[in-house]
Amino acid sequence: MGKRGFIFSPGGFNSVIEELSKKYLIYAPVLKVGEGRFTDTDVVRYDFVNEVADIELEKKSDYSFKEILTPLSQTLFFFTENDVKEANIDERETLVFLRSCDLNALKRLDQIYLKNGREEDYFYARIRDKVKFVLMGCEHSYEDCFCVDMGTNRADDLDFSFSVDYIDNKFKCLLKDENLSLVFANNALKEEEVIPGFVTENDTKVKLPKDVPLSIFTSDMWDEYTARCIGCGRCNYVCPTCTCYTMQDVYYTDNGKVGERRRVNASCMVDGYTNVAGGGEYRKKHGDRMRFKTMHKIYDFRKRFGYNMCVGCGRCDTVCPEYISFSNIINKVTAEIAKTDELKEVQSEN
User: Fold this and answer.
1) How far apart are CA 225 and CA 324, in angstroms?
2) Could you report the per-residue pLDDT of 102-114, keeping only the tens digit for each?
């Protein structure tokens, strides 16, 4: 892919979006006025758009982009007594606008669904093949973000069609996809070098543990979350890297031989996630669930794939009704490990 920088007026970039809309579905963060969690509050979540004015470029999205790839409820196939029919999907390609942390989160989703075993996840792959991405630059850090310490504040080496930064009433774009060069060149004010904006420092900081001893899994630090967490699962549902799901069969007839199979998002923080046949439940306490989630985000995934699962977007901190901060949990884990190491040193000296 070549790289060319373009500068657009608002009208010129809107013309680009209008032209792209003829071929692509445009999926981007949108400000939903009055649709927030509380009365008279707003929320930023993803939706399909047709013009630049619909795209929220300033505020951080409260929800991630992942529902375009992993819908909350996805029908996989229909079945009758004699036949199985795969569910149709929209065959049009989609352009998704997202920030650096979310583009790094895409790498995690691909790792789980496409590279986590002998076979790719067919139902994920057939959607993924039709999705391209637009990198939205970050000129400043947002509340609760800790992407710098997670190493996800930049996405230069990741795959995106073009970038977009809105600065001084101009749109600045770095184009990678040469197939879009004509529509960009026809609507631009000029060509010049463009570097996507990225954050260099966050107000929220985390210190990641290098080595994790087994003692952290039995530490009483998790008891705090048994008392505080209410198991609502909001942290999982806004997280761009949570990938868990469950399967549901919906029957159209009483004999259970006609219906559909759905893949539905699941959450390790919600009741029922670890239920097994016979009524067993492996993680009943909310503190145990928090331990499982935390260690998966900053230890288990890294141990297997070489990099952390968490991308530091901070959405889980923002959405939690009990004001539980995941960035604080990471720092508490690191502090607990340091305390354990200090105790070992004292014991060895004695």
Assistant:
1) 8
2) 999 999 999 999 9
